[in-house]
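Quick one, tokens below. Sequence please?
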């Protein structure tokens, strides 16, 4: 059963629901190794052994939203809030640039103080100073007009996970003032405005089932994002989901492999959450088909405050030593860091 399922996935790049269930539920160890092997061979045929790095700057942990899973939700009184000034952000970019980063990801909560105009001007300032760099935003749900202005100012990419493609599940993860419809509206607006779009979901979030994950796959098939970000759901003690179970690393890795086989050219990060749930999660993700890492370039003293989940691990890379350590870790599994911007489609399928 599983052999045929992997064969169809790897050779025809299609996945029927039955095969999907086999791969998630009935894969023996040997089958899992085969799935990961096919996925990493596919990644190598497109990207070689180069891993793209994106410098992540967590610009604010102030958030007007109250998502039940997230540690920086509005309702978490314990969170020690901070926001970076434009000058601090530019300094992070400068540090990243000298370390070789050519793409910066500004990620943050939906902080009302960093309003549309502020974001627009910040993007413009980065573009002015680093014209050869790509700017990615990951700042949540905005109006179409705001997304248009950010794009005009020079933002190239936008990351917004859909979190779940099942509206009923969505309502169990978010308070009533948030809507699945608006999330999806945002994603289509971003696509239409010409962004390279990243979406994705947490694996093992409360109330998630294989049926909802299947819906995630169907949404991704329709949207055709340039990047798919997935990582295990991890509990945060200051949320309504405190005391729940963490998501599964195994399922995360299998899903990475499935996405790699379905979409050979898609950008697949090996996420911080994956590296938090397992000390070698980052490498395991790459060996299951991931091809992107997002080391944190933010100021060290702020980093631990951007606590989406408990025990969040800091991905080295922020300092020169961090980058060397990352190179050593990648070297052990036979990979190197790419010097390119890593735009989607840059490699083409070989
Ligand atoms: N565990 C794992 N991932 C989380 N995120 C938010 N909270 C958690 C958590 N507790 C993810 C969401 C969000 C991204 C920035 O981080 O998917 O889109």
């Amino acid at each position: 059963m599983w052999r045929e399922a992997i064969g169809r996935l790897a050779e025809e790049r299609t996945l029927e629901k039955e095969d999907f269930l086999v791969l998630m539920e009935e894969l023996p160890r040997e089958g899992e190794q085969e799935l990961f092997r096919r996925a990493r061979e596919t990644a190598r045929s497109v990207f070689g052994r180069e891993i793209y790095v994106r410098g992540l700057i967590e610009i604010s942990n102030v958030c007007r939203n109250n998502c039940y899973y997230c540690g920086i939700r509005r309702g978490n009184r314990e969170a020690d809030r901070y926001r970076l000034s434009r000058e601090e952000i530019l300094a992070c970019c400068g540090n990243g640039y000298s370390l070789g980063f050519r793409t910066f990801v500004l990620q943050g909560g939906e902080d009302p103080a960093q309003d549309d105009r502020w974001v627009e001007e910040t993007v413009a300032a980065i573009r002015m100073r680093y014209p050869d760099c790509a700017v990615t935003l990951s700042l949540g749900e905005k109006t179409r007009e705001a997304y248009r202005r950010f794009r005009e100012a020079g933002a190239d990419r936008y990351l917004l996970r859909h979190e779940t493609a099942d509206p009923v599940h969505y309502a169990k993860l978010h308070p009533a003032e948030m809507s699945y419809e608006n999330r999806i509206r945002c994603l289509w607006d971003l696509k239409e405005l010409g962004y390279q779009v990243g979406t994705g979901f947490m694996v093992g979030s409360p109330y998630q089932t294989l049926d909802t994950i299947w819906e995630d796959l169907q949404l991704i098939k329709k949207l055709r994002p340039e990047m798919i970000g997935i990582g295990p759901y991890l509990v945060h003690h200051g949320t309504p989901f405190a005391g729940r179970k963490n998501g599964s690393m195994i399922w995360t890795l299998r899903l990475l492999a499935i996405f790699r086989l379905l979409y050979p050219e898609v950008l697949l990060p090996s996420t911080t959450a994956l590296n938090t749930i397992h000390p070698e999660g980052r490498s395991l993700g790459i060996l299951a088909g991931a091809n992107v890492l997002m080391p944190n370039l933010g100021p060290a003293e702020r980093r631990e405050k951007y606590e989406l989940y408990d025990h969040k691990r800091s991905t080295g890379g922020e300092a020169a030593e961090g980058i060397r350590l990352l190179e050593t870790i990648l070297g052990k599994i036979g990979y190197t860091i790419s010097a390119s911007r890593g735009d989607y489609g840059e490699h083409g399928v070989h």
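The first strand starts at residue 50 and ends at 53. The mean pLDDT is 95.
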